[in-house]
Design goal:
The protein is mainly alpha-helical. It is about 50% helix and about 0% strand. The longest helix is centred in the N-terminal third of the chain and has 23 residues, at about 20-45. The radius of gyration is 20 Å and the shape is globular.
Length: about 140
């Protein structure tokens, strides 16, 4: 393999991840918002209603076995989408990483968007740049 080929994994996480502190806050928020929504829903009895509805469904009690896989799939989708939004390929695993709990790169990506080109800016700044470029008339 060539050193710069896409098949060569980065040697360390620092080679892969060049985010700044505000960008880390986006990742943290993306993980905490669904978690806080779950905690709020649980305090309002949503968890009990979901379990009762699954048990009363045609699949019965066996449907409860699907809940962990569904929630893990939702979590991976959020994580992969935020990584792609920040320009990081969720399927790339640095050479110094691997095993539990870092095994998500071995699974297919559940990202809802393609990997974005970030140009060293925060994703929000890239969106603003694209919108302002699209709104400016061509100067030819």
């Amino acid at each position: 393999m060539k050193p710069n080929s896409p098949q060569t994994p980065p040697a360390t996480m620092e080679d892969l991840d060049h985010r700044t502190v505000p960008a880390w806050f986006l990742s943290f928020s993306a993980a905490m918002v669904p978690f806080c929504a779950f905690c709020y829903g649980h305090s309002r009895g949503v968890t009990t209603r979901v379990v009762e509805r699954v048990v009363k469904s045609p699949v019965g009690v066996y449907g409860l076995f699907a809940l962990p896989f569904l929630t893990l799939g939702m979590e991976k989708s959020i994580y992969d989408t935020v990584q792609s939004w920040q320009g990081i390929d969720p399927n790339v695993r640095p050479a110094d990483r691997g095993g539990f709990p870092s095994g998500g790169a071995a699974l297919p990506s559940f990202s809802l968007i393609p990997i974005q080109k970030v140009d060293g800016l925060l994703p929000v700044q890239n969106i603003a740049r694209k919108l302002t470029k699209a709104s400016k008339p061509n100067e030819n």
